[in-house]
Amino acid sequence: MAEGSRYRMPLRRRREGKTDYRERLRLLKSGKVRAVVRPSNNKIRVQFIRYLPEGDQVEATATSDHLKDLGWEGHGNNIPSSYLVGFLAGKRARDYGIEEAVLDIGLDHPEKGGRLFSALKGMVDAGLDIPHDPGVLPSEERVRGEHIGEETANDFEEIKSKLEES
Q1: Are 70 and 93 in contact (CB under 8 A)?
Q2: Predicted TM-score of the model (pTM)
Q3: pLDDT value at position 4?
Q4: Which of 16, 117, 152, 164 could form a disulfide with 148 if both were Cys (CB 3.0 to 4.6 A apart)?
């Protein structure tokens, strides 16, 4: 490790690999609410976070656990569940008066048609204005879960209809 009077220790969250401060500052300068998508091994979380000088404020949130309450029996971190979580979070954000946001995927690696962009597609379908390239969104067949199995596709349609009604 470097030593000396001119060495500057990186911030703790940067050392831990949790925060890219340059990217965070770029997103905050937009002045818009951040649509934060954070996947884990078993779940996915979507939050709408507003920057305040006192600290960030979570406006709306949705996780895979909320889908289980609606009857989702599939895995909590695949493309269909990511879409549904994004759709649910988008509807909740609209209830709080949020009309537009910027996507914040943190340090996750963006993959074309992956879980992160599936959640983005759900938020956009819920009626939010989030700048994106349509080429990165997954296909409708993958969003419905047809690549996983017919049971997942049927569960997807059932849960989505419940979310559209509420």
Answers
A1: no
A2: 0.91
A3: 83
A4: 152
Q: Which of the following CATH numbers is that of domain 17-165: 3.30.750.24, 3.50.50.60, 3.30.420.100, 3.30.470.20?
A: 3.30.420.100
Q: What amino acid is encoded at 139 in this protein?
A: S
SS3 content of the chain, % helix, strand, coil (to 5): 45, 15, 40
Please compute the mean of the pLDDT values over residues 17-43 and round it to a whole number.
94
Mean pLDDT of the chain: 94
Instruction: Tell me the C-alpha distance between 84 and 107, whole Å.
Output: 22
- Chain segment 107-124, per-residue pLDDT in tens: 999 999 999 999 999 999
- The sign one gets for the Cα dihedral 52, 55, 56, 58 is negative
Q: Residue 132: what residue type?
A: H
Length of the chain: 166
